Amino acid sequence: MAEETITSMLEERRKFAPPRNETAHIASMEQYAQWRARFEADREGAWRELALEHLHWQQPFTRVLNRERPPFFRWFEDGYLNVSENCLDRHVAAGHGARTAIIWEGEPGEVRRISYAELLAEVCRAANALKQLGIEAGDRVVIYMPMIPEAAVAMLACTRIGAVHSVVFGAFSAQALRDRIEDAQAKLVITADGGWRRGAVHDLKSKVDQALDGGGNSVRHVLVVRRGGNKVAWKPERDLDWQEVLCVESDVCPPARLNAEHPLFILYTSGSTGKPKGILHTTAGYLLWARLTMLWSFDFHAGRDVFWCTADIGWITGHTYSVYGPLACGGTTLMYEGVPTFPDPGRLWQICAAHDVTIFYTAPTAIRALIKAGDEWPARHDLSSLRVLGTVGEPINPEAWMWYYTVIGQRRCPIVDTWWQTETGGHMIAPLPFATPTKPGSATLPLPGIEADVVDGDGKSIAEGGGLLVIREPWPSMLRGIWGDEQRYLETYWRKFDGRFYFAGDGARRDEDGYIWIMGRVDDVLNVSGHRLGTMEIESALVAHEAVAEAAVVGRPDEVKGESICAFVVLKQGTPDEALRQALKRHVGEVIGAIAKPDEIRFAEALPKTRSGKIMRRLLRDIAAGREIRQDISTLEDAAVVRRLLEDQQG
Ligand code: WTA
Q1: pLDDT of 504-538, one tens digit each?
Q2: Which residue segments constitute the domains of the chain, with CATH numbers given?
Q3: Which of 244, 327, 470, 472 is the most exposed place for a label (fewest CB within 10 A)?
């Protein structure tokens, strides 16, 4: 692996980062070291200062961190504030009402620019509409929408009145949507008729109808934005037209006074069981870190930068870096509705050029796909506005890193490889673009205030070498729990090291310079194109099919997607043929969503198990990847099973 350190251009690159206020910009490794020293000397004092400086408080807090009942930490707990006020009113009041908050491009090519003043007015109208519908602080609202500005409006409207949003990715199936609605006991669903994907309208409303037909009884209303223009079924007592409802509402709505620990949103993510976890984030800590990481790891300058994070708002990346981070900074965020390679692989670069994007943030999978498409696509567009390039979601291979750096960034833009999770709310390990010498493939060093460490199985710190990634100290934007499941929160993140520190579920290596290299998940979570999927979720979907007796799902290395999904299936009926294979893939698509469809299904007579009955996943992973089996299979219940699976492979 290339461990070349990219320092040569640091001086050159700094020209692109005009000096600013010290807490908003870290310009050198000396400053980084000072920050670390400051946190070490007085951790709470440093957080106090940052939170007072960077957030607008209706009532400032006096207490920084409550650690009375670890790991249920509470931050800034006697303070009061409002997220939408921080993201909107504050900037309008400072005279930036006319500044563009959101640039939106639809897949068919239309463009909308929404100023801070307009966004504030629209959010107020939407917030008033929510109140009219009986939504109160603490109520849950599910948002199931395409990437259109109304999705951000809906999120911010919830925060204005203290409703808790739970965004469900638009590619999830009706059943997955229903599960999330039911788990959150949502009162309202905000959706659209449909949105544009790959040249056609992708229907969303019918999926909401399906989800609510078979359950979701907590839902009283469905608010529908007209976007796709597709025909939808309508239940007059339940369904409401967004436009009609909002146009009669006032554009003034005072921001609710909310406690710093008021729940802000729930976002479901995959874990190692069949049931997704509702990750809970709260108000002040999340917002503080969303803003600080925009400033630190992207060097974001409001009023000058155009920031584009390509993630859908259905994922944490879209929450923090398409919506809350840029808006908390008073800057401009770009949203794009459609598929990045539509109508051709130059679409992303065309959008960057058309809107003078300065900071671009995407996933390694997209980068690898674009490399395959060929260098002629970026060459057709003027990318000279770009100055910082980010990546997230999966380890980036050094080759893809170098392509991004040379072909897209023209060796001018720092590459910011950001390691973080739904649970962490924002970046944890990432280079400071104008300070940290980077190494292709490494997320480099923890951000100031973050005590990331690589430890062995007993929790002993490993100075150099491989181990498990943990976070030693609580941080403001950490998850506050799993919705409705305290026990699972304790078990998943804290039990492994007896509550001493947060266990991320990733393996990592630390090199001789203290740089961290993320190796990938050590639990039963797959990372497909930077999307998190639980093997157990896919297995439960498969065994729910009438033909399937047993299933085991493993990841297999994939050149573009990072990992692809391989399912081993034991049948109880039916013929193991291509038709059944396709039917099973379709079935998984219906239960979870298209992103979870196995790339490969292998029929087996039985699954290899240990004598205690555990499926041998490591062995299946080796078989799926076509690797040589080094493992001793003599402990297996039935060694013949493995031999047959291996023979199938050769055949
Ligand atoms: C992986 C996405 C390597 C990791 C923000 C983590 C990464 C999981 C990186 C979280 C990175 C995220 N390098 N791996 N820069 N960033 N991951 O919750 O396995 O969707 O645990 O959050 O993605 O996925 P999630």
Answers
A1: 999 999 999 999 999 988 888 999 998 999 998 99
A2: 42-339 (3.40.50.12780), 529-650 (3.30.300.30)
A3: 244
